[in-house]
Amino acid sequence: MLESGHRRAATGVLEQMKDTLGIDAPPGVTATLLYRPEYFGKPFTDYLNDCTRGESDWSVGERELFAAFVSKLNLCPW
After folding, report:
1. Where are the beta strands (DSSP E) in 6-63?
2. Does position 62 have pLDDT exceeding 90, yes or no?
3. CB atoms < 10 A from the CB of 13, how many?
4. Do the domain assignments include residue 1?
5. Is the terminal CB of the chain with fewer CB neighbours within 10 Å at N or C?
6. How many domains does the chain have?
């Protein structure tokens, strides 16, 4: 479903991403967020924004750096 089941607007975004980045397929997380965004994409994005931008003892920059470090350890391409 994530390869062919997106709505027209999401399909356009994914195609533009592939063309712009010169990749065969968009990152799986992007395809997942755009597939039925009202069911998963928006609630997850809202939660993620709360985690990275909400009240915390850590600054936004520290949280972003921590996320980037963990992504690097997990060999994430983004």
Report:
1. none
2. yes
3. 16
4. no
5. C
6. 1
